[in-house]
Task: inverse folding
């Protein structure tokens, strides 16, 4: 994937924490000439992608995935069906988890955008009450996969947030036994 630098000296400053709307606002600006819009139909389905843009001739569908994409098996099934439709239609899908913030590292990792992005809100499980202990089995598999692939700085911040929440609420209420190694000192 080629990287894209956003022109101008202005630093993008997202809302206090990343939401679907703030992510769409950022991508709309970054890909202004190739923005395809919000709520785009998934081919052969009644479902929709949250937003999309063209990059190097390929459609990129972006999904901002809230906690229900980790807790509800039928929501995960729907996501897998959307991903299969994307693959069949040569559409790249980017899934942006609710426990990640838009910053310099994640803009590069997820979208190939090189831009200084400042956010005061840290990655991880800061204000939410939906921790990995609440995830279904399929959601835990997804969380593990995504966490292991993140840039080290982001992964470290997420694990730190889990340790903080485990200290606050008790480890077994924050992570399931399969992830206890993440919060062990």
Result:
């Amino acid at each position: 994937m080629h990287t894209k630098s956003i022109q101008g000296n202005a630093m993008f400053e997202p809302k206090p924490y990343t939401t679907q709307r703030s992510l769409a606002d950022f991508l709309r600006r970054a890909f202004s000439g190739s923005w395809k819009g919000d709520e785009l139909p998934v081919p052969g389905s009644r479902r929709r992608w949250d937003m999309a843009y063209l990059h190097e001739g390929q459609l990129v569908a972006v999904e901002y995935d809230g906690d229900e994409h980790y807790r509800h098996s039928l929501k995960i099934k729907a996501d897998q069906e959307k991903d299969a439709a994307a693959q069949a239609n040569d559409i790249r899908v980017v899934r942006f988890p609710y426990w990640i913030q838009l910053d310099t590292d994640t803009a590069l990792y997820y979208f190939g955008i090189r831009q200084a992005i400042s956010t005061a809100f840290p990655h991880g499980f800061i204000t939410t009450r939906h921790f990995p202990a609440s995830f279904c089995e399929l959601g835990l598999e997804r969380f593990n996969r995504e966490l292991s692939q993140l840039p080290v700085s982001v992964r470290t911040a997420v694990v730190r947030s889990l340790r903080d929440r485990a200290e606050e609420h008790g480890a077994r209420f924050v992570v399931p036994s399969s992830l206890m190694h993440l919060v062990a000192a």
